[in-house]
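Adenine nucleotide translocase lysine methyltransferase, pasting as requested.
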Amino acid sequence: MDQDDPGEAMTELQERSIGGLGVMQLAVGAGLFVYAVWAGFLMPGFRRVPLKLQVPYVPANKRQVQNVLNLLQGRSGKIVDLGSGDGRIVLAAYRRGFYPAVGYELNPWLLRLSRLHAWRAGCAQRVCYLKEDLWKLSLLETKLLAELPNEARVISGRFPFPNWEPTATIGEGLDKVWAYDVGHVRQTMAERAAAFEQGTPVV
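Structure tokens follow.
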């Protein structure tokens, strides 16, 4: 058999039964592939992230994307995705009429993948993905409260803001998303601060 002929190689493979060694080789090969993906695709985005804040990249599934869009229903204008991953939420939001639609992501491989998705969808000139190290922001909650207007809505997927009271939630488990209306968050935090000064227990 000609070893360079992929057709003959496939025919021979189909005619053979895979023994225990063959299964082991497939498993080892899969393990090496997973490590290669982790080392080349995911690790670059973790190198400068504090250890206690490191979380694995898990792409948003269709249900989570839909949950985000549901919490944005009735709204319009600019959308910014912090930690946009492969960019699918930014792209979906743009298709729903949000513009400008911007994603910030530290991992350069995910940025390239985001731009590839946008190009394939014919939206490369309409959505924007930028490399930004969000972990330089020691207090993201404080920064958002200082810069966003009261009518802004912040939506968090899978990881809620620890000190904010959500306006609405939707989904369960990995599909769960939280919505925070900035005006409501400011009011709640002001009430908590006033109660603390008066010695009233804060619930």
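Note for the archive: The first strand starts at residue 79 and ends at 82.
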